[in-house]
């Protein structure tokens, strides 16, 4: 019995091992869920929730699901109600961003699940108001900074 492998046989074996190590067409993608703002009841979340997929092969399937935390306990449970589902094939290279086109119908805590990665999101009934400094605050801060600059210049002269 001859156990010698020819050069072409060795190259083929190495290529096969590398192919198996790198993965096949069903490679599991890396998933990141990005929530840019607070979702509002009755408004679509296209620009608010986006899911990034990287490290996949072309035509991998993706699944995105939004669950309502029905128990109001802050934990993901198997009995949480499904509010939104989206799936399809990944075609981007080297990454793809999928928008979540969900319109919340229930206020409160929800879970976004994409490929086993979960992130919680709170749905509000009103758009959050972000505080903007009023003119008086800006003017006082500017005068204070100018005063500090003046003091440092005076100290340098004397």
Question: What average pLDDT do the residues reach?
Answer: 81
Give me the strand/helix succession.
Answer: HEEEEEEEH
Give a quick account of the main beta sheet: strands, pairing sense, barrel closure. Answer: 4 strands, antiparallel
The geometry reads as elongated
Helix share, percent: 10-25%
- The strands making up the biggest β-sheet line up spatially as 4-3-6-7
Instruction: Please report the total strand number as a whole number.
Output: 7
Structural class: alpha+beta
CATH superfamily: Macroglobulin (MG2) domain
CATH architecture classification name: Sandwich
Low-confidence stretches: 1-7, 18-25
Describe this structure in words.
With 158 residues, the chain is of the alpha+beta class. It has a single domain, classed as Sandwich (Immunoglobulin-like), CATH 2.60.40. The protein has two helices and seven strands; from the N terminus they run αβββββββα. The strands form two sheets. It has a four-stranded antiparallel β-sheet with strand order 4-3-6-7, with no helix packed on it. It has a three-stranded antiparallel β-sheet with strand order 1-2-5, with no helix packed on it.
């Amino acid at each position: 019995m001859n156990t010698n492998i020819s050069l072409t046989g060795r190259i083929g074996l190495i290529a096969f091992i590398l192919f198996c190590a790198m993965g096949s067409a069903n490679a599991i993608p890396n998933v990141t869920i990005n929530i840019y703002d607070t979702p509002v009841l009755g408004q679509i979340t296209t620009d608010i929730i986006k899911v990034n997929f990287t490290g996949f092969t072309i035509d991998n399937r993706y699944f995105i699901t939004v669950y309502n935390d029905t128990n109001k306990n802050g934990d993901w449970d198997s009995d949480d109600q499904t509010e939104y589902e989206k799936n399809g094939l990944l075609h981007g290279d080297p990454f793809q961003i999928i928008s979540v086109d969900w319109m919340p119908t229930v206020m409160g805590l929800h879970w976004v699940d994409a490929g086993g990665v979960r992130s919680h999101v709170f749905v509000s009934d009103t758009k959050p108001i972000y505080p903007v400094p009023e003119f008086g605050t800006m003017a006082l801060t500017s005068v204070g900074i100018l005063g500090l600059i003046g003091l440092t210049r005076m100290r340098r002269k004397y």
